Amino acid sequence: MKHQNPKRTLAVLSAAACFATLSTNALASDVAANYCSSSGGGNYEYIAGVSVGGLNNVTTGTNAYSDFTSQTANLVVGSNPITLTPGFINNAYPEYWRIYIDLNNDGDFNDAEELVGSGDGKSVLTTNLSIPSSAADITSRMRVIMKYNSPVSSACENFSSGEVEDYTVVIGTSDNTQMPDMCATQAPSDARTLVNGVPLCVPTSSQFVSFSVPGADSAGSVAITTSYGLGNLTLEARNGEGGYPKPGDDSIRSKHIGNTECVVITNPTKYWTNVTLRGLFKGATIVADLGKTSCRTQPGQPDPGNTGYPYSHVNVLIFPFSFSDSALPWSNAQIEADMQAVKNYYTEQSYGRFNVTWEVKPEIYINEPKSKYDSDTRSWHKLYEQRIAQAGVDLNFPGEATLVMVAAPQVSNINSQAGPPYIQLYHHTPGTIAHEMGHAMGLRHSMSVEGGNQIINSGSDTIRNYGNPHAMMGMGAHTLEEYNLMYKSYFKGWVNDADAPVITISGTYRIYAFDHGTASGTNAPGNIGLRLKSGNGDYTYWLEYRTTNNRYNNNTKNGVLVNIQGYMENESLPSFWNHRSALLDMTPNSKDNSRWEIEDETDAELAIGKSFTDPWNGFRITPVAKGGTEDTANAWIEVRVEKF
Description:
Blueprint: E1 11-12, E2 14-17, H1 29-32, E3 45-52, E4 55-58, E5 65-76, E6 78-88, E7 95-101, E8 115-121, E9 125-131, E10 138-148, E11 162-172, E12 200-201, E13 208-213, H2 216-219, E14 221-227, E15 230-239, E16 252-254, E17 261-266, E18 273-282, E19 285-290, E20 297-299, E21 313-323, H3 332-349, E22 355-360, E23 364-366, H4 371-374, H5 377-390, E24 402-407, E25 417-419, E26 422-425, H6 430-440, E27 447-450, E28 462-464, H7 485-488, E29 507-512, E30 530-533, E31 540-544, E32 559-565, E33 581-584, E34 606-607, E35 612-613, E36 619-627, E37 636-643
Parallel strand pairs: 5-11, 21-22, 21-23, 21-24, 24-26, 27-33
Antiparallel strand pairs: 1-4, 2-20, 3-4, 3-6, 6-9, 7-8, 7-10, 10-11, 12-19, 13-18, 14-17, 14-19, 15-16, 15-18, 25-26, 27-28, 29-37, 30-31, 31-32, 32-33, 32-34, 35-36, 36-37
Helix pairs in contact: 3-6
């Protein structure tokens, strides 16, 4: 579906670097106003990302022209790496890039050397901007142009397909207060000790990378800076006892969108300062400056963590693998059939608001026996990443709204598994695929609260993995069970505030079955859920009425299921794990839990006539009646809410 006025989303990953000798003379307003206009158009392609000089601007949606002069790139005389990312609504097309900078601040881009960079292609382009010494110490304007199928003839051209973006640039001379992009000229460093003032290129990470900084106590302070590259890292540091930073400890943390982070430790008392970078990132530079109390760059916007999947579609790149002794037990015809089932599932789950597409890549044949990797799974991971890279895809950064699926015979005893943005698939069923896609788009399992003989807040609560047996992201994948309502809200546009309103006053509220939607919509004549805040304001309860259950008992028709959001969450990688549901068991310890089929949570519903009170004294809820046509979207249940 094409949208005429799509919402554009900005992610300013870095604002401005600190140059000790840099002039800050801004453009005079009368000069800035004289720049010629230029614009693109169309509904097929757009500029999705510009990353240069500490600036990393990510956008979505077509726009003919965008004024981003409030965002600043810090450049230096000489070569400056720039990464340009095209975005496409459907297919990828050949795009031609031209980058202009007004190098003499005369209000135009007409001088011969003001075309500072160019390139073309259908995918991410990395090139260099060449800045002459005559442009040192100025603040000026940069124009980035992407045009379909041919380059523009000038910086003032108006054309029908593509986009134009304007930025502010600050051009400095080389000095030791700059933050150089080390990965542009060096391979990732194997060093794990940061030498004072020496920047390093950080290895690519999907979890974390750690360093130590010696001599902090005698220096009086240490400023640690990261910048450049792709992804989203969190910088953590601590001095002295406790070793390396750990999630939830008292380490100093910098968590902003992108890779530009700053941590300053003042008055360190111990020799060693330990540093950890967490997240999925590549191409980042790190430097530690002893005796400094400010960083070389300043971070941009704070990172709220993974708050939702921002796209209304996803494309899955499927890479089939086989070995000399083990063929892939999944034919192309079966792949197509299973993916069509997955597509249909997500269409229904989203009420017609989400589209799944896929591409089956040529089979990758490993001319070695699988048994070699059964005993060396680490080498298997390295191998498939390398072979996919040879096919032109970065496993960790495949592009916007794109997942990579590694489909192979089962290696060792590895279960199918996933995390943003790729999947290891060893069990070829639609339910497994749909479940792992949920992980690859940023969801944890649908869990449950295990509180012993109490429902919640017993003092010894734990979170049980897979604990929601009714839900796709719990144990419901085998029979393609419904996503729970809270997890549906994670996806763009599936569930809005009106579908599941927050209840603030006492009363009796009717909700309809949320699990009978189709591609035509929820088909419910009213609300499909309720939300309630805990008395302390920290947690959100989601009430849902589920009437289908293909594997377990049908008692969900006689009550509401309640999932809590935010309870006992302490994610080590909130940049892509920050949204977890936990089902409350309203009849705790009622069943033997020796087998999944009779797990305690299969009767977790709050039945009609039973009550639950928020332990933080926010409310009491009691289902009181049900009606409508059973097993349809018109089935309903009424819940009495008493607010305290």
